[in-house]
Amino acid sequence: MWELGKDLLLVSLGMGIGVVLMCIISVGKEADKLMEEIKENKESEDN
């Protein structure tokens, strides 16, 4: 019984880490897009 509980805990922990990593990657991609837009806007204003 203890083995089953330990395995369930480890699987849950792994899934949680996976979800957190996916969220971080998603936020990073959005930030990159925003930075590109800001850079393009500044370049167009300078010209």
Question: Can you walk me through this structure?
Answer:
It comes from Dorea formicigenerans. The protein is an all-alpha fold. It has one helix spanning 2-46. The termini are far apart. The mean pLDDT is 93. The protein has a domain at 18-47. The longest helix is centred in the middle third of the chain and has 45 residues, at 2-46.
In short:
Helix content is 96%, strand content 0%.
- Cα distance spanning the termini: 70 Å
Whole-number mean pLDDT: 93
What series of H and E elements makes up the topology? Answer: H
Beta-strand share of residues: under 5%
Characterize the largest beta sheet: strand count, sense, and whether it forms a barrel: none
Q: What percent of the residues sit in helical stretches (DSSP H or I)?
A: over 70%
Total number of helices: 1
Name the structural class. mainly alpha
Count of distinct strands: 0
Low-confidence stretches: none
Shape: rod-shaped
Compute the CA-based radius of gyration.
21 Å
InterPro entries: DUF3789
Transmembrane segments: 7-27
Keywords: Membrane, Transmembrane, Transmembrane helix
Protein name: DUF3789 domain-containing protein
Output the keywords.
47 residues, mainly alpha, 96% helix
